[in-house]
Amino acid sequence: MEKAILVHFDINRKENLQAEESMQELEGLALAAGAEVIKEIFQFRPKKSAKYLIGEGKVSEIIQLKENLQADIIIFNHNLTPIQQRSLEDEIQVKVIDRTQLILDIFAQRARSREGKLQVELAQLSYLSPRLTGKGRNLSRLGAGIGTRGPGEKKLEEDRRRIQDRIAKIKKDILKIQKRRTNQRKRREKGPVPFVSLVGYTNAGKSTLFNALSNEKMFISTQPFATLDPVLRRVCFNDGLSFFLSDTVGFIQKLPVELIEAFNATLEEVNEADCLCHVIDLSSSHCDSQISAVENLLSEIGASNIPIIKIYNKVDLLPNEKDLLKRNKDLKNQSVYISAKNREGIHDLKKVLYSLLFKDLKLFYLQIPKSNKETTQSFDKWSFVLKRRENKDYYELKIMAHPDSLLNYLPYIRKGEANW
After folding, report:
1. Which CATH architecture is the domain 2-156 placed in?
2. Which of 56, 66, 342, 365 has the most CB within a 10 Å radius?
3. pLDDT (tens digit per residue) in 60-101
4. In the beta sheet, which residues pair with residue 384?
5. pTM of the complete model
6. Exposure class string for 181-211: b at 16+ Cβ within 10 A, else e
7. pLDDT tens column, 294-313
8. CATH says 193-357 is which class?
9. What is the CB-side half-sphere exposure of residue 100 using CA atoms within 13 A?
10. Residue 121: strand pairing partners
């Protein structure tokens, strides 16, 4: 493991509590990338240094710590300009990366699908392009490891024109993926099955909840960004109604703008959902700030107007677990307390989802003459066919559908449940 020194800079000393919280998160990111954190450094000063971000005295302190502790990498909890990064590496004589580059490195490790790898490479190249001057020389001197994964040293040593050509090629490939996703969404929109997307801060328990709802066994981890590529499954209720459920990448404070832009295809899935399930780690001491971070990002991508259910997860880690679960009796609040790990509160969550997703649907019984057989073949495209049977003269259907969609079938509607 690379030995890392973490550095936090802020111009406001009053935000010391937020600084501690942010550094805890940075430490988790560093560990996920494969680093061993050996020292944390804070600096609060009235203004940034254009050359180093931090003051020259703090740079000297880091140089001494690097030599004494034999550090391999310095990670800043702040975005560095290309000039600041090069100046720090030249002065400290060790690899220096910022928060954005660290997150991009983790994504490079996590990407599995072709789409995910393309999105990560685009984000990395977009970030590294303005930092190419002297980067090939620096990488050769500073070695490999955290901050150098993904496109790799060879690509970074190519000239800007070839880098831009590669970026253009990746964007074309991603555009094809977006078109395919758009076509898939259009097909879903034509059908009756609603779409639900899980969103939330990284490590809030989205994948665990996804498994609990869909009876899947998707990979879960306590490390950030364990789920990078979106996963889609169908969740069915006992009466035959169902919805599509999507697990998405976790959000985080100061999510790099390069990732927001590169993962537009994935975020579009969130934006097109009929309902969002905001999974919240209720046991986290930073719960409120994490909620705000997710809500702000949803607003940025234009998804703030989509119906949302707040799901307070990990109640099993709290002493008042039973009292919290009792709150689920009031299902009007569209807030549910659960333990996805122990599958407590999942039944209550499904009740809330059912009432929200299917509130406009009504139950209908239809009797269609066999002479109109072709009529029965269209029902699956726009309604939930719960039961289907035939007798000597008729096809009989029991469906759930929006009343407006039955206007052309009024002669076939029968009252009551008949003999079902």
Report:
1. 3-Layer(aba) Sandwich (3.40)
2. 66
3. 999 999 999 999 999 999 999 999 999 999 999 999 999 989
4. 400
5. 0.82
6. beeeeeebeeebbbbbbbbbbbbbbbbbbbb
7. 998 888 888 888 999 999 99
8. alpha beta
9. 18
10. none
